[in-house]
Structure formats: C-alpha cells, structure tokens
Amino acid sequence: MRMQIKNIRIIDPLQKKDSIGDIFIENGKIVSKFSSNTSNEACKIIDGKGKIAVPGLIDVHSHLRDPGQEEKETIYTGTRSAAKGGITTVFCMPNTRPVIDNAPTVEFILLKTQKEGLVNVFPIGCATKGSQGVELSEIGILKKAGIVAVSDDGLPIANSQIMRRTLEYTKMFQLPVISHSEDKELSKNGVMNEGKNSMVLGLRGIPKQAEEVMVSRDIMLAELTGGYLHIAHVSTAGSVDLVRQAKKKGIKVTAETCPHYFTLTDDIVKLYDTNTKMNPPLREKKDIDAIKQGLVDGTIDCIATDHAPHAQEEKNREFDLAPFGIIGFETILSLVLNELVDKGVLSLSEAISKMTSNPAKIFNLSRRGTLKEGSIADITIINPEHSYEFKKENIVSKSKNSPFIGRRFKGGAEMTIVAGNIVWKV
Amino acid sequence: MSLNRKDLLGLEHLDKKDLQAILDLVKPFKSLFTRSVKKTPTLIGKTVVMLFYEPSTRTRTSFEIAAKRLSADVVNIAINTSSVVKGESLIDTGKTLEAMKADFVIIRHSLAGAPDILARNLNASIINAGDGFHEHPTQGLLDLYTMYEKKKKFEGLKVLLVGDILHSRVAKSNIWALTKMGAEVAVVGPPTLIPSNIEGLGVKVYYDLDEAVKKVDVVNILRIQLERQQENLFPSVHEYVELYQLTKERLAMAKPGVLIMHPGPMNRGIEISSDVADSRNAVINEQVTNGIAVRMAVLYLLKPNKQVKKNENAD
Q1: Counting Cβ atoms within 10 Å, is residue B86 exposed (0-12), middle (13-18) or buried (19+)?
Q2: CATH at residue B116
Q3: Do residue B121 and residue B142 come from a single domain?
C-alpha cells in the first residue's frame, strides 16, 4: 500500500524542517520516493493544501484503565480518543488492575492493542512490586516484555533508598524512571492547590512544596546514581526552577507538563466543579508563566496529557469524594496550538517537538517522532483553520471529565496516520 | 421583597444590600416570639426538608422551629436510618426529595461544597446549614444580627474571632458578613490554625490573645475540636487552654462593654471559662433566640425555582 500526501506544509523538528512538499509512504514507512517495483500498486493520494503534517504525536503520560477499570476507559475507546486527538503513540501508566508489574500484563495490553487498538500503546511498568514502594519489580523482564519506562505514578516511592535503587538499577536498561513527585504527607487529604481559593472554598489544600520537595529529592538521587529521571506533570514555578538548575549541573533529568498546567488556574475550582480536580492540582498565574518559560528555554521537554478518565457517577459528587484526574487526548493539540503557538510562546516547530522528537529521544523510541526517511509512517495532519467548540457529546473517550467542555478552539487534528494507515479522519 | 436568589450557600456572594435586607426582617419576626401565637401563615403548604449529614442540635432545632413558625411542613431525615447508609449518592438523595416536591432543603454536610452540588441539581431552594470548612451562612447572619442589636452599628465595630480559624465555617461566614458591613475583623489563634491567606480577606491576624482582646468590641469564640490535637496543630489541650482560653482575667483586660459570643456547643473550661460564659457580657443564649428569627427571614426571602429547570450538564 502506498500513499502520497501532496503539497503539505511539513514540519519535522528533528530535521529542523518546515517547508511545503510531498510525503511518500510505502509499506508503512516514510520514503523519499516510491521504489520502482511497486509502481503497479494502488496509491492513495491526499491533498494536503493548507494543512500541516507533523510526526505522529507521542503522549508519554496516560491512563487507559485496561485491564480492570473498563467502566472508565478501555484500549478500544482510549486509542480512538487518542487517534481523534492526533496522537499516534500513547504510554499507559501501570495503575491498572492488576498493576503492570509482571510480563503477562504487559503482554495482555500489547495483544489487546493489536486486536482492537487504533494507535500504538507502550506500557510503563511499575518501579516496585505492586507499586508498594518496598521491593523493585522485575524491571529486566518487564523491559523484555516491552515497557518503555518505569513508574509508580500516583503512589510515588516514599522511601529514598528504594528510589535510589530504582534509579541505579534501571541504568543498565537505559529506562527512564518517571517521578510523580508528591510528598504524600504534605499533600494529605488535600484536594486542590493550597492558597486563597482553597481557604475561601473550605477545601483542604495541597501546597506546591508537596511537589517541589520530591522533585528536589529525586534530582539529588539522580545526581547520586546517574540514573535517568523524568519528572511527570510539572505544575509549579518552583519545580521548573529545580529542573532548570539540575540540567545546568548536567544531571540526567527531563520533564513534562500538561496543557491544563499552562492554561488554567485554581480560580476555576470556584463552583466545586470536580472536572477541575486533578493531581497535581491547578496552581496560579505565576506558575503558568514559569511553566511557559520552562517550555521556551527547554527546561520542560515534553507536553503530555495525563489522560485520566473517570466515570460520570464518580465525578458527579462532593468535591472531596471525587477522584483526581481529567481526560486530555482530545484537547492537547488544540490547547498547544491556541495557548502556546497562537500566543507566541513557542513556534509551531518547537511546540511539536515537545510531543514528537523530544519524547522519542527521552524514551528511546527508534524511528518515531520524526518524518525522516525510513521512519515508521506515524503522521498527524493538522488543519490550522478548523474552528470548533469542544462539546461533551463529541467526546470519544468513554469518560467525559474535561474542564474544557464548552471551550472554543481553532486548529486541531484533521487526520491521524499510524504505520501508513489512516486511523482517524475528521 | 426577596433576595432574588434561589439558594443561600454562603455569605461570600451576598452584598451589603442583601445583608441589610435580611437584618431588617429579623426584628419583626423576633417580635412574634413574645406573642401568645408565635406563628405566621407565610409558608403554609410549603415543605421544608432537613437533610443533616452531621450531628446538630441547635441548628437543626432552630431551623425546624423557624420553618414551623412560618407554618411550613417540616420533615427531618435521619441519615443513619435513611438510604444514605445503603450508599445512595447526595445527588440521588436530593432528586428523591425533589420528586417528593420539597420546596426547601436545608443541608448540613461534613464536606465543603455539598450544598452547591445540590443547588445545581435541584429546583428546590437549598439552604446551607454548615458545609465542612466552607461556610455556615445562617450562623454568620445570626452573629451579625446579635452584634447589630447590641452595638447598633457596624462601621468601626471591632470584632475578634478566637481559635481554630482554619477549620471554622463560622469564622468564614462571620468574616464575609462583617467586612461587607464595614466592621473591622481580627482573628487570633496559633499559626497552625490560621490559614496563611486569611489577610487577603481584609482580616488582621494576632497570635497573642492578651494583646488582641484589649482592642475589640466583640469577641466571638470558636469551638475547638479536640481531635485537632492529634493532627499536631497544637501540642495539648493543656497548652491551648493556657494560651487561648477566654478567662475572667482576660475579660478584665477588654473594654467594659465587650460582647462575648460563642456559636455553641461550648467546651466550658477549654476555649471559654465557665464564669465568662455566664458573665453579663455573654450573649450566647440571645444568639440562639436570634437564630430562629434570622432563619425565618432567610426562608421568607428565598425564592424557589418555579419553572422546571432542565438538568443541564451536571458535571
């Protein structure tokens, strides 16, 4: 099967390319021109005029809930939601039921993805058995099964010695250790950012320091061990500073943030809307500014969704009792375009690099995150002119917990191509 | 006259005019109490449901008497014998009450925002009778009225709130109401029990009760919950008593006509000494009487949704 996308603006941050041209796809790979011995095969022609082709987006932080919590999301619905959002590769966090601390669960996810998935799914394995923070999981076996990183995500490793061992042991596999940085004692019972808004609403606060204390500890342990540390969902100005200083010192640390952390502040919690409840919580204007600065100067390498679906009945209740998390696959691209590119924070190429070449490099994904010849043909086609309202009834994810419902966007994914196949088209 | 609102969720969103409208109505309702027939037919045929998820004697009884004096039919839901113990959600419980055509739901809940959630999902008027650490608007109003009755003014009135400000919905409602009316509010307590952003509400912070008590016209003492000690918010009840109990000696440092208030229930011998609670300065029982008239005024002024609102997008 061959495909030719004609007259399209091609942006490939890895090659520093931004020009109008054609993309040729043959046997699921990007080629510079079709080989002569396939010239009698059918060729699909796509007119790319006015559109932008970028490497398929890679989302390094999501929760697919499969296996075990299929009422929230499944690989079937989750990968469709991702495809609609222009994402061709998702990493899924290991807090499934059972957790991903064993090879059979990794294999289950990969097989189910083959069977019913629309996009690539790469599991993240538990750093410790059962995510209990006590004993290392069998990371070598998990790596062979196909994990791309380890993390205990929402149950961060409290014991500094265990975290040290994790960072040390994973070095031989070059596996990044993803830190959901949270001091659980400091954040205990907290449900939103600690500040004036939490005081007025009578909700228990989570201080920024609950994140920063752990970012700082993990950076120190990365320095000690030489391990590969990746800081998940940076939400505070202080964390941005800590990562910036660490990078200056040459410590192997990378970081991600999520669209909501550069778009929304805790002012939006006002009506006890549980779709504004996530962990880490929405912070303040000065944090948004610092995160944008961190994206500009390269302190923050990736933009990920932390897609965290929850069923309606779990969210539609008292703020304290609702679970943390919002969905994100279907809004990430539009938010990046509108909040970062249109506002002049990042160039389009810089913005795209945070969702393509940077994650591919950090997590050692070969032949992805670029449109270079020989790469796997994962491609996202953007329509920069598409204006739309993000409506609840149009959400493809099984869950609808988004604070962006009702928001108007300009620009979004028009077509999503995975390994040369069109998996989603507006 | 009405407040032009369906619900009373907190005093944060009321303005001075609204507060004054409520205060103006309290006196006529209160004058009813000394008559032989203490009832008006205002809410005849209306159903008031009391949905109390937390224990309460005075607030629940006060609302019940207020509603009955307005001739409403009052239903009490005892949470421990209701379907809540079978796991029914707050919204479903609310919808059930709505289907039974409740006109008012008065809710007390241990979690902040629970009344807001009901208000968004129901056509009935929701009155917050205390939600978590958020607000207790009718307590704030009855405190406001009691100060107004005794001191006749708010402009320049100095009010001190003593104790656990962090976990106090009463403090929050007092601060909103008093600052809007032009009074000066100060709080005193250990830093662990005072939210760091409280000054943003226009409130002065003291840690030393001896210093603070000298300057004020009203001292409103908050109940200290003894389980806070287990959270290490203060080292011992013994030390709390030493630093923050309003004693006879401390009362002697205050202005002679100082009003002593307490929302109850009191821990005598902990945040307030018995002799102060029973002193001539204390208006604690008058607060209770005023509470009924204030709640009558609130029930009178709220306007339930007549039209059936489509249940749009409840989160």
Answers
A1: exposed
A2: 3.40.50.1370
A3: no
Q: What is the pLDDT of residue B311?
A: 42
CATH architecture of A55-362: Alpha-Beta Barrel (3.20)
Q: Do B315 and A315 touch (CB under 8 A)?
A: yes
User: What distance in Å separates the CA atoms of residue B107 and residue B97, rounded to the nearest whole number?
Assistant: 12
pLDDT at position A11: 98
Within the 289-348 window of chain A, which residues sit less than 8 Å (CB to CB) from chain B? 312-313, 315-321
- Report the amino acid identity of residue A325: G
- Round to whole Å and give the CA distance between B234 and B269: 17
Q: Is B84 on the interface with A (CB under 8 A)?
A: no
Q: What is the CATH number of domain A2-52+376-425?
A: 2.30.40.10
In chain A, CATH 2.30.40.10 covers 2-52+376-425
Average pLDDT rounded to a whole number, residues A186-204: 97
Instruction: Using pLDDT thresholds of 50, 70 and 90, give the confidence band for residue A391.
Output: very high
Per the domain annotation, does B50 fall within a domain?
A: yes
Q: What percent of chain A has pLDDT over 90?
A: 97
What's the rounded Cα separation, in Å, for the pair A113 and A79? 8
Regions of chain B where pLDDT drops below 50? 307-315
Coil, strand, or helix at residue A405? coil
The answer to whether A287 is a known catalytic residue is no
The single-letter code of the amino acid at B82 is: S
Q: What is the pLDDT of residue B306?
A: 58
Backbone phi, then psi, for A32, in 5-degree steps? -85, -30
User: What integer is the mean pLDDT of A312-337?
Assistant: 97
Q: What tens digit of pLDDT does each residue of A78-103 get?
A: 999 999 999 999 999 999 999 999 99
Domain that holds residue B170: 137-289
Q: Which residues of B touch A315 (CB under 8 A)?
A: 315
Here the tokens at position A389 are 């309202």
Residues B171 and B112 in one domain: no
- The Cβ-side half-sphere exposure at B94, using a 13 Å CA radius, reads 28
Q: Give the Å distances, CA to CA, from A222 to A129, A151, B69.
A: 21, 15, 69
Question: Is residue B88 one of the residues assigned to a domain?
Answer: yes
Domains held by chain B: number: 2
What 8-state DSSP symbol labels residue B254?
S
Shortest distance between the Cα of B249 and any Cα of chain A, in A, equals 33
Q: What is the pTM of this model?
A: 0.94
Report residue A225 as tokens: 């061990």
User: CA A210 to CA A156: how far, in whole Å?
Assistant: 12
> A258 exposed, middle or buried (CB, 10 Å; 0-12, 13-18, 19+)?
buried
